[in-house]
Task: structure prediction
Amino acid sequence: MRAIRQVVLRARRLARRSTRGLRGLRGLRGLRGLRGLRGLRGRRPAPLPRPLVVALACLPGLAAVAALALCAGGVEHAVTASIAARPVQRAAQSPAHSAARPRIVPRSVWVADAARAQPAPRYDDKVVAVFVHHTDSPNGYDCADAPRIIRHLYAGQTGGRDWDDIGYNFLVDRCGTLYEGRAGGTGRPVTGAHTQGFNHRTTGVAALGTFTSGVPVPQAMVDSIAALAAWKLGLADVDPRARVRLTSSNSGSRYAAGATAALPVLAGHKEAYMTSCPGAALTARLPEIRQTAARLQGRTFTGTPQPAFRVLPSTPPTVMHNTRRPRRGP
Result:
């Protein structure tokens, strides 16, 4: 545009010079001046004034410059109008009911040099349910010993049971500290090995300890489970108070392979498997955990929870399969 403006200014200066030269022609007033030229037949016409010649020679160039300026102005106006009319590109919207990610200690803290060679993790497309477990281990531990306890659980599952990794996606100690369990990334929908027949599109969190009837469940542990559930379910905008239709993939569960069960979105392990896990005491706290998780997601308590929806029995097409070694977890 700057170059075009310079050309237009130069053309204007030439036009002003030409106008000065044309002023000398004012003596030829109308037709009277032209009649005097009739007697000049046969004579050699007088040469035109130089300024007039210059002006006539410049006319095609001036016309082209003017057209170019108008064209450029029109293009600029069109581009400006197009930009103004273009809709604003919004960033990907977050789920309507999301929750903050709680602090989670990475698995590197507890696995240390006990890590075994294992296949790459598998992933689902999203998490639509959370299963709560207890580890059925002693309760009287110091929270500083939690990494050692988790490492012991890992060694038992990968060694004695020959699983490829620890089955739980997350673990929580009596002080409310959350730990990353199964490898693959805390923010991703890692396929677990924690609930026989219902590992796809679910995540498992295990409370360190045994919480049978009459055993107090630490409030810090309850609050951390709620925070974890609110965050993981919020990534898919799932209401923790709802129910979800899950289809069993293994007849070793409470349901035959292919059977569909309507289960709580936030469920105890015993809802899907023949077990008393997570113990009567922790099971009794699940309603509170659901309500707290819903509140953390910013959900109101006057409406109806999100209705149940169906989860296909087959592995979703977004799941990345592990082909190196079969999984032997639940």
Q: What stands out?
A: The CA atoms of residues 118 and 164 lie 6 Å apart.
